[in-house]
Request: fold
Amino acid sequence: MGGLIVTIRLTGAKLVDPAQSREAILSDLWIDGERIVEAPADGRRADSELDLSGHLVMAGAIDIHSHVAGGKVNLGRLFSAADHREHREMAEGSLRSGSGLATPSTFTTGYRYARMGYTAAFEPAMVAANARAAHLELTDLPILDKGAYVMLGNEEFLLRRLAAGAGQREINDYVAWMVRATAAHAVKVVNAGGISAFKFNGRGLDIDEPGPYHGVTPRTIIRALARAVHEIGIPHPLHVHCNNLGIPGNVETTLATIDAAEGFPIHLTHVQFHSYGTEGKRRFSSAASRIADAVNRNRNVSVDVGQLVFGPTMTESGDTQAQFRNRRHAEPDKWISMDIECDAGCGLVPFRYREKNFVNALQWAIGLELFLLVEDPWRVFLTTDHPNGGPFASYPQLVRLLMERDFRDACLARIHPAARQLSVLDGLQREYSLPEIAIMTRAGPARILGLADRGRLSPGAMADLAVYRPQADVEAMFRAPDHVFKSGVEVVRGGKIAAELPRGTTQIVRPDYDAQIERSIRRFFDDHMTVNFQHFPLSEQEILDAGGRLATQPCRPPGAPP
Ligand SMILES: [Zn+2]
Reply:
């Protein structure tokens, strides 16, 4: 960043920093270069001062699950001309124009997140064979820190090894090799075994059902991967998109998935789509309370919600099996399904969620029930599974739904009456506090992603800050912070982009493995893949050459507690 280090003193603001304290505290904040520092003991003045009297300061927000880069995101853009026609913008102060709401272009993605006080977003479904393209695209997102979770659990190599009875050591070495070869930050499993089953005409795969070709059950895959991620010390637990997404009655599969982890840490993503029962005359009901109970009881489990937002969007998923089922609901009527190498693939289906549609209305209510029934804000995170449940631009409205019961009840009164009757939302009094919002959008994601120097406002932390002017309308407050700092640089001022640099860093982990594993992976590549083994791994230099910056988060030593 050159030799220019500027100290900045922010005075008079209230800090909402649940990593340090449950209370908002009035304190000055000192920034030296890109980090928060202690106030200098010698009484020295800062190079610049900003009076923030009456403002609230939080750490920059972190989106733990948002589809912002990679093949399916690009297909989604290609597929939604209307989204790009209707949402065109030139972010003031920035050099680049952009477009799209559900499928925004890279620059728009970075600017819009930053203008909402977000300083990091993680792409949760990187196909291994497409890692290079996904990373180059992530590098293109201005301002934000970023990282990607590599999708494992449906690829030929792993399924063959599990079918052959491979030991946990071999699985661990393979997972570690894959994470390094794809410069990933974490490991995701999507519909374990189900995407492979789809290739052999399997249209569903439940947790204890052997896959049609390899004969491996989803339970075996989930257990092996959850244990591998833990044993090789990756900070973020296995990120699980459960089997049977969207199917009434899938609550049983989701509860069985928690069981399959056998106590190893797991993160269940967009759990709203996996919390469905079969009660009532329409055979579709909320099972949010059963899922919330299980999360409350099992401290190894965290979730993000994947809240549904009414309106048009694009669904983009690695779950080709679920997307094949969803094609019937496409609006407009078009869809894409594809497979890449022997890895997995993706499915794209445009959607419109309606408050007067019974199923959509109940899905909306189920998401909010989950937010309100999971007791520990450190283990439930604010997501819409952008753009699958709705665009990330709707987060400020979601915050209001969680913080204001009156607003929530007014929205509830508008939805399909049968859905309203089946939901317990009406009786839920809970209103999130500001510190709880700060936990679920900052401190919590930083902790569960292993980002020790993010999500907090104490000395040593990266100076990623959002400065809000308190308003009666919390949606307006969270939509447009007055100032946003990224790595000590004021990137947003008065709701406008003030600087496009710094670019943010790509977060990766580098777990160790026994190099013996490369022999069997190489043999598999020689026999089956179109890419040469030597060309497959992404070198970190490629990210740097594209103008990116890298930060490696440490892995836990073997045997250390999670
Ligand atoms: Zn997702």
Remarks:
- The CA atoms of residues 355 and 414 lie 7 Å apart.
- The chain has a mean pLDDT of 95.
